[in-house]
Specification:
Blueprint: E1 4-5, E2 27-28, E3 36-41, H1 46-58, E4 63-66, H2 72-83, E5 87-91, E6 100-104, E7 113-116, H3 121-132, E8 135-141, H4 152-160, E9 164-166, E10 175-180, E11 186-190, H5 197-205, E12 213-217, H6 225-237, E13 242-246, E14 249-252, E15 262-263, H7 272-281, E16 283-288, H8 301-307, E17 311-315, E18 318-322, E19 337-339, H9 347-354, E20 361-364, H10 376-386, E21 390-394, E22 397-401, E23 408-410, H11 416-426, E24 432-434, H12 447-456, E25 470-471
Parallel strand pairs: 3-16, 4-15, 7-8, 11-12, 19-20, 23-24
Antiparallel strand pairs: 1-5, 2-24, 3-25, 4-6, 5-6, 8-10, 9-10, 12-14, 13-14, 16-18, 17-18, 20-22, 21-22
Length: about 475
């Protein structure tokens, strides 16, 4: 079998695709000219890819990740693990998704290195416990926006476990983990109210702690519980004994993490803007490869979109959303109050749909989104105001009052989901000018190309470098 070192994909957001001008100006979100009839396939889940990369790096033998996502977040994770001594190589894949990844863990993780987290929460929160298991200091830093993301819980958790962390009191990037090659483990209390990733990052490494880990969440809320369930499922699949004896408490027994060959599911949250498009433009959008059961929060779309007026069916692994006449055909979503506490990453797409609804609505349970790639509540309120809409911040969510919108600049704030929300609005509002469509490279580098083909109904073409298989477009 021929193997080659992993190389990050090219993240040029435009490439040979249409750009508004030769100076690299804003991306003008295309409007829909009629109902859709699109069928497509979405690349692998970022959440699953990065969890499986971490577990493979700690496993007791080589693991093969089939159809992994190739994006900026996963490339950053690959490079972070390689800097700790993990071998990650490309091997031929099947099914048009690009190469698979063969991950071979080292006998010992090595420190005395630096790690670029970019804007990836999974890197900045999953990798520090691994760095503590390595020998030598590991310096962490990232993009400018990453330095504003909450990290104090991870830093204080490592200190409580006996790990030296230098952050000059910031509780944020940059910081340095001084690894000693081992973590004792045992009892630990944290407040993970800001992100479930604080819990997942500790659970993923916990089997390698000398005493395992009994972790208790002390905060009043815990967002995105399905992501913790995803972590637990991935651990159990590799033979790790993990339990949750009561809500907010998890125990992981020490022991080996089994080597495992894993098929990575499509990223169902990345499917959200494409499925939402059917409700705006009308017609149908189908996503192939949709799992019958999954731990991904994107599967909540099967329940959410019917409440917003769509017909949804899952048949033989293909999810189809029928938006009927759509907003452009005079059919507006009903006014709803929605709780997205378990699936906050879907909020930008849902808010974009509610901006066209029959009346005012709310999205609540998403206060933790203030600490994501940007303060998403602030950002959504600001960009809708820029184009004539009305979105108002609440303590734990947003209130949406539909208004006639107009074209204008749409600021992304380095957030991929802000960019895809703009694309949804642009289907019905001419002249939405997105300042940084390249932000979508974080989890879906080919978004502009895939979006354009969905709209123009082009013939199918071979999968692109990030593994997108375009079917029947």
């Amino acid at each position: 079998m021929q193997i080659t070192p992993y190389s990050a994909p090219d993240f040029d957001p435009y490439g040979d695709r249409d750009t508004p001008d030769e100076e690299g100006g804003p991306w003008i979100a295309p409007t829909a000219s009629g109902p859709l009839a699109a069928r497509l396939r979405i690349p692998g889940s970022k959440s699953l890819t990065n969890r499986e990369l971490v577990l493979a790096a700690l496993a007791d033998g080589p693991s093969l990740l089939r159809a992994p996502l190739r994006s900026r977040d996963t490339a950053l994770m690959v490079e972070a693990l390689r800097s700790l001594g993990v071998a990650i190589e490309e091997v031929p894949g099947e099914g048009g998704f690009g190469p698979d990844l063969l991950v071979t863990p080292p006998e010992e993780l090595t420190g005395s290195t630096s790690i670029d987290c970019g804007l990836a929460g999974t890197v900045m929160r999953f990798v520090p416990p691994l760095a503590a298991l390595a020998l030598g200091p590991v310096a962490f830093d990232g993009d400018e926006h990453a330095r504003r993301r909450p990290m104090r819980t991870s830093i204080e958790a490592l200190r409580a476990l006996g790990v030296e962390v230098s952050d000059e009191g910031r509780g944020a990037l940059p910081f340095t983990v001084h690894g000693s090659g081992a973590i004792r483990g045992g009892e630990l209390e944290i407040d993970a109210s800001a992100s479930s990733q604080f819990v997942s990052g500790l659970l993923l490494a916990a089997p390698r702690f000398e005493e395992g880990l009994r972790l208790r969440h002390t905060g009043e809320r815990l967002p995105s519980l399905p992501h913790i369930e995803m972590t637990i499922h991935a651990l159990r699949a590799r033979g790790v004994e993990v339990a949750s004896p009561e809500p907010g408490v998890w125990s992981v027994e020490p022991g080996p993490i089994g080597a495992l060959d894993v098929d990575i599911e499509p990223d169902l949250s990345n499917a959200a803007p494409f499925l939402a498009a059917a409700l705006v433009a009308g017609g149908t959008v189908s996503i192939d490869g949709w799992p019958a059961s999954t731990t991904q929060v994107g599967d909540d779309l099967r329940e959410l979109l019917p409440r917003l007026g769509a017909e949804v069916r899952l048949e033989e692994g293909t999810l189809t959303v029928d938006g009927g006449a759509g907003v452009l055909g005079g059919s507006r979503p009903p006014a709803l109050d929605l709780d997205l506490s378990t699936g906050g990453e879907l909020a930008p797409a849902i808010v974009a749909l509610q901006a066209f609804a029959e009346g005012p609505g709310t999205v609540t349970g998403i206060g933790h989104l203030r600490g994501h790639e940007t303060d998403r509540l602030m950002a959504l309120a600001a960009v809708f105001a820029d184009v004539g809409g009305q979105v108002t911040e609440l303590d734990e969510g947003l209130a949406i009052t539909p208004r006639a919108m107009h074209g204008g600049p749409w600021r992304v704030f380095a957030d991929h989901r802000m960019a895809t929300a703009a694309a949804i609005v642009g289907l019905a509002v001419e002249g939405i000018a997105v300042d940084d469509i390249g932000a979508t490279a974080k989890t879906l580098p080919e978004f502009p190309e895939l979006w354009a083909r969905m709209l123009r109904g082009s013939e199918p073409e071979p999968a692109g470098p990030a593994g997108i298989d375009l079917l029947g477009l």
